[in-house]
Amino acid sequence: MEENTIICRCEDLTLADIRAIIKKGFHNPQEIKRLTRCGMGPCQGSTCRELLLKEVASAAGKSVGELEMTTFRPPNKPIKVKSIMMGVEQDET
Amino acid sequence: MKPKAEAVIIGGGVHGCSIAYHMAKKGWKNVVLLEKGTLACGATGRSVAGIRHQFGTEINIRLAKESVRRMERLEEELDYDGSIELMQNGYLMLAYSEEELDLFSCNRDLQKKIDPENLTEILTPEQAAELVPGLNLEGLYGASYNRRDGHASPFHVTQAYANAATRLGVNIQTGVEVAEVKKEGNRVTGVVTTGGEEISTPVVIAAAGAYTKTFGEQVGLDIPVTPERHQVAVTEPLEMILGMMVISFAHGAYFKQTPHGSLLLGVGDPEHEVKDFNERSSWQFLFDMVKKTTFHWPVLREANIIRQWAGLYDITPDSQGIVGKTAVEGFYLDLGWSGHGFQLAPAVGQVMAEIVSGETPFIDVSCMCLERFECGKLIPEPACV
Hints:
Largest sheet of chain B: 8 strands, mixed
Oligomer: heterodimer
Number of strands of chain A: 3
Number of helices of chain A: 4
Shape of chain A: elongated
Distance between the termini of chain A: 57 Å
Structural class of chain A: mainly alpha
Largest sheet of chain A: 2 strands, antiparallel
Distance between the termini of chain B: 48 Å
Radius of gyration of chain B: 20 Å
């Protein structure tokens, strides 16, 4: 079941993957993000972030609120380079 | 009773972790590494993590040669249960003037003089475009290229060193910030954390990037290092289209594609950056970055940017690291790599462990001492952003 349950859709990580890294002793969502890419995909963790926090919390015996949240980074939603470029070109004319 | 340590390392970036590993390997017991955040959360993890032989000073060429060889077999050396994501498909340096190309040729000659096996070659614009299909040839004079260069994951390289160090008995503590380095007479005696805990130790090794300046002040040393923000954006994962790392010193821009498929696009703006510890990314960077990277490689126009971040270079007056012992007994430095520090950590970690152990280091780094800024013996590195 763990093998078939997808946690991070963008980076294709299963519940088994997440539990495996927690088992290695990583109880900080930031560290797990950097080592597994969980939440680094195009959706920036909109689904997996909370699932990851819950898994870590239950393994660490903490509440979700006690954990350090992973960082949301701009631009929040994917933007085409071309679209930004059009803004630059408009500014320059 | 105060806890005691044989040595305390400040900073859990790739340098701190490499030093910890090499010290433990040499038989040091009870080494404590203190990191205020998580491992690689500062300059290390925020870097684009290029690896190259192509430097322009003898000291960096020697450190780079050793470091690349170690990176090639790092997973094995450190018995890492993951991948450091090393991609060794070369590093291409673009020259946008006659002078720049001449400089690259001189650098290549020096590299080959020091290391006959060095593979650096000078390419015509057309040869460069064969390596990077779609490369814009406008204004391009040529390029320097070394196929044994490449890049890796800064998180995994750091973690690999940290895991190996931990297995050898190093006590790595994350979330613990050093507030003060203590000194009595001319000798360090310990560190105090922001939590008020004091660890007494005769050896303190500061490897905290630009933050190291404060620790220097506490023991009466002036370390000429300034933070300088550089920023990176990452695209969605794409089909593998770029084997090598590409850099333009003239534009301060560089990019690579990770094995995962995402492209990392980095740009710095030293001229306009306020020299402070601001680690936040900016909208202005996105404008600057798309302009520069689409100039070099127009195909990027179609890629989606999904995230951006910033990190701090630790800049010194000659863009060279500050390494080794200091006038204060027991106080050692490893910082100031000015944007090319990640890749040199394997060799520098060993050099530092040897110096701290009172041995002659396997690479002579005496020219990188702190005193060089007082006596004016600077060693400017021409090949860096």
